[in-house]
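ok so i was messing around last nite and threw this chain in just to see what happens. nothing serious, just curious
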Amino acid sequence: ILVVSSCRFGREHIHAANTPVIEARRDFQRDTVERLRTAGDHHIHFLDGATILDDEYGESTVDGVHPTDLGFARMADGFAPKITELLT
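result:
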């Protein structure tokens, strides 16, 4: 199981008030995965979605939310290392 937190999107600069909520959700997801792994479940993993669109994440969407072809390609590039790690 790969738990992925929310991606960063261009709307973030408009809705900055949501940032603490997004970060709290990410922290909850990461902490839950870590707790389960510590308890012995080594088949669950975490990927911080904020890292998969690189620094130009605002260019990856049509409207600040929905990914373009470029956005989907960047997502694939962001997922690939973790998926490769898990499959080897």
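not much to say yet. The helical segments are 19-38, 69-87.
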